[in-house]
User: What shape does this take?
Amino acid sequence: MPDKDRRPRTAAKAVIIQDGRLLTIRKRQGDHLYYVLPGGTQEPGETLAETAAREVEEETGARTESGEMLHVRDYVADHHEFAGQHPGLHKVEFYFRCRLLEPIGARPPSHPDKRQEGVEWLDLAALEDADFFPRVLIPILLGHRPDAPVYLGDAN
Assistant: This one.
């Protein structure tokens, strides 16, 4: 049986786009400022759609409704540039289109992510210039890959 810390973790992420902007979580590690989608690890007994909604509420304070699943991504850290920071980490992430049920800022985040500095709407037009992860989603979100597969592979 594999070591518990080496087993893949499942996570759900929310893709929320309004008025040409993408809802992101702004994070900082040292001097490095970067952006990720709201979302996180699935809890036992929770569906992936429930995970996405719970995580958005915890990280932004806003309630959402999860819609269709858009993509699945493996992330095997040892294969990417952050291997030294997360050795042995393997996540399987499910990306859902989500809709806000209330505005961002209605309530403060109840459980912000580690290193989370805030919540930020990024203009899609500026997404390529932002330090946004996973980078594999950028051409998809910008509409440059309308034929993007559901399974994105082991990508960052």
